[in-house]
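[Automated response] Your request has been received and processed.

Submitted sequence:
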Amino acid sequence: MKLNLPSFLRRRGLPEALLETSEPKIMHISDTPDNIYPFILNLIEKSRPAYIIHTGDLVDNIKLERRPELKERYKKRVQKLLDILENSNATVYIVPGNEDDPKILRKFSKKAKIVKPRDIIDIEGIRLALAHEPYELKDNEPIDFALYGHNFKVIEKGLNGVLNINFILPYSKRVIKVKYPDGTNFERGYKVMRGL
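Generated structure:
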């Protein structure tokens, strides 16, 4: 069955395997600036993940660690993303990042599980190590995948949520990667990526 996808999802090359699989899907995102929230909502609606894991910096264009005076703006925007994630019918896990306020996340979260860096969770028979920054991951734990974000580092068994939106199919242990919209890195504050 061929689905009619919005043009921005076709341009992103949304893999048909993602839409056609009967396996439950684990969606992994990280470091999300608020201008891509509509993209995330549409992607969730089309792919229908059973689980969503966000590895931190939910409003990555608001650098709360360096600009605590933006806390009120952060609250409004993080509530928007939490509404998108929690209304998806997926089980949601969040690892707070360095630009997040864990107290605010706990206060506004209705269903999401706020987990600590280094936590290991079991989903559908696979073990996932969760962190915001790669250095937070434990070295010698038996895992299937390490999920993280924060920078562009790539580690063994790792899936970096800054580089792609990662979908894991747990029974086959297959990973399907979806690109973020153009300009996402600029909104994250990575001007160097655009050659500026």
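Summary generated for your ticket: Helices lie at 7-11, 16-20, 37-47, 71-86, 102-108, 184-188. The mean pLDDT is 88.
If you did not submit this request, please reply to this message.
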